[in-house]
Design brief:
elongated, four-stranded antiparallel beta sheet, seven-stranded mixed beta sheet, 120 residues, 0% helix
């Protein structure tokens, strides 16, 4: 099994910041790319950011310059620093990780989601 446990969500004011964390645990051979999706009620799921094992990162246009994704390979953890928050950032944020369970079995694991609410 691969479990992803998220933390760090909460309530922030416009212009505020949060740091989301997602830690992988369980039985696996290695972790590959990791990233974050978000989904607001009535909206499509959106890929926010992703990062490879060599720290190559990509961002949605809506968050460029405000969000930063990073990872700690020793801890199998991915982070999302969210700055200059806007009400439009309000959503449930889900992390994911690509994992090699064995030398031949690939699996994409998902976190349980963490709520980010941006409001005055």
């Amino acid at each position: 099994q691969v479990q992803l446990v998220e933390s760090g969500g909460g309530l922030a004011q416009p212009g505020g910041s949060l740091r989301l964390s997602c830690a992988a645990s369980g039985s696996f051979f290695s972790i590959g790319a990791m990233g974050w999706y978000r989904q607001a009620p009535g909206k499509q799921r959106e890929l926010v950011a992703r990062i490879t094992t060599d720290d190559s990162a990509n961002y949605a246009d809506s968050v460029k310059g405000r969000f930063t994704i990073s990872r700690d390979n020793a801890k199998n953890t991915v982070y999302l620093q969210v700055n200059s928050l806007k009400p439009e950032d309000t959503a449930v944020y889900y992390c994911y990780a690509g994992a090699m369970l064995t030398s031949t079995q690939f699996y994409t694991a998902w976190g349980q989601g963490t709520q980010v609410t941006v409001s005055s």
